[in-house]
Amino acid sequence: MEILNRFIAVDNKCLWPQLRTAANGDIYMTGFNEPCHGMTEGDVDCFVSTDEGRTFRFRGIPVLHDEGSNRMNHNSGFTHGGDFITIISGYTNRPTEIFDYEYYKENYFNKSELVIPKVASSSDGGRTYRVRKLDYVFESESIIPYGEIIQMEKDVLAASIYVLGTNKASEFSKCSRRCGILISRDDGRTWSEFHEIDKGLNETSIIYLGNGELLALCRTAEKQRLLLYKSFDSGKTWNYLEDMSTRNQIPASMISLNDGRILACYGSRLNQKSIMYRIGDERGTEWSEPYVLVVLSETGDMGYPSCVQLDDGTIVTAYYADGIDQHTRYHCGTIRWRI
Prior knowledge:
Blueprint: E1 2-11, E2 15-21, E3 27-32, E4 44-49, E5 57-60, E6 74-78, E7 84-88, H1 101-107, E8 118-122, E9 130-133, E10 142-151, E11 157-164, E12 177-184, E13 193-199, E14 201-210, E15 213-220, E16 226-231, E17 239-243, E18 249-256, E19 262-268, E20 274-280, E21 291-295, E22 302-309, E23 315-321, E24 331-338
């Protein structure tokens, strides 16, 4: 492994970044635009790199938050037609400034609810968006989008989400949760199906391997581990394959590399906080041992890596941290590297 460059891509924002590559090679980055863990009003910003991940510049805001709320949880990808698309949710009862956590938890978080997710799509490089409410709803559960929106067979998209048995934040610790995929059969205009991966899971990364095969790398609600699942029928049913990390190594993102292998990258919140990765074969059946990509010293809140690979083999990985030795506030960092 060779690290080519490291950058502060976006400063003074949390992001939980997501990277996606457009057909023209531009790299899109989306994430929460305030320097906190979703504790205030705010939105998901869209940034774009036109220089292979060396710099990112602001392009637009897919969904504007309502007063007293935010938009933060999201998934993202591209339609078959080339539009950038994202589903974004968030929370009510958010202040405009950052308070002490215990005060915030008692007066804001515990009195908040999830907002209805909205779908935003852009045909002009992430500058402007067509926005509508997500048309798939559960009778007594709430949707939190997270991860990828991926292309499958013609006009079919799959969106990674997880589902909670409540919309009230005060009930999150005891409610049911499960992860799965939403399916659109008209290139993202409507979302008509949900297929569960498994219960007791939340933030999930998905990739399409072709011929109806998908992989899902899922965060567990308990013990904070990563579990690998596979589908052979376009996501309708799923089989557990293996544990992919130890405790407190979450969440992950996966991409298919140019040579067909699979890269899984994830944050490790053990004593040595770091961004780690593993390499899998083309079908996701055999995996390398874990490797450390970068150590993030003196950080508390960190991780959520997301990766893309360029045509020349360079990998761009984005992550967030609430501060490291060299940069002591919230930021999104990027690493350009080669395996």
